[in-house]
Specification:
Layout: E1 2-7, E2 10-13, E3 18-26, E4 32-39, E5 46-52, E6 57-59, E7 67-72, E8 77-82, E9 91-99, E10 106-108, E11 112-117
Parallel strand pairs: 2-11
Antiparallel strand pairs: 1-3, 3-8, 4-5, 4-9, 5-6, 7-8, 9-10, 9-11
Length: 118
């Protein structure tokens, strides 16, 4: 089992910044993908950004140039720096931790709310 502890959500004005953090603990596998997804009520959960243990990153087109994902492998922690926030970024943000080579190893955090006021 893996436990994910998220922090950093909140209320911010449009144009502002927030940083989310997610620390993983428990049965950590070496080859992994850590990432952030978001969900608005009534919509499907969507990818925001991911980062692999071997250094690759991936971003949704809607956040490219505004959000930056980073990780500290020694701390099993992933960060999401969100700049130039827009009202459309308002959502519950979920941390995800999964193995690169096993579909059965896939864990989610409890979610943290980000609200951007216009």
């Amino acid at each position: 089992q893996v436990q994910l502890a998220e922090s950093g959500g909140g209320l911010v004005q449009a144009g502002g910044s927030l940083r989310l953090s997610c620390a993983a603990s428990g049965a950590i596998v070496s080859f992994n993908v850590m990432g952030w997804y978001r969900q608005v009520p009534g919509n499907q959960r969507e990818l925001v950004a991911t980062s692999t243990s071997d250094g690759r990153t991936n971003y949704a087109d809607s956040v490219k140039g505004r959000f930056t994902i980073a990780r500290d492998n020694a701390k099993n922690t992933v960060y999401l720096q969100m700049n130039s926030l827009k009202a459309d970024d308002t959502a519950a943000y979920y941390c995800n931790f999964r193995a690169m080579y096993s579909k059965d190893y896939n864990y989610w955090g409890q979610g943290t709310q980000v609200t951007v006021s216009s």
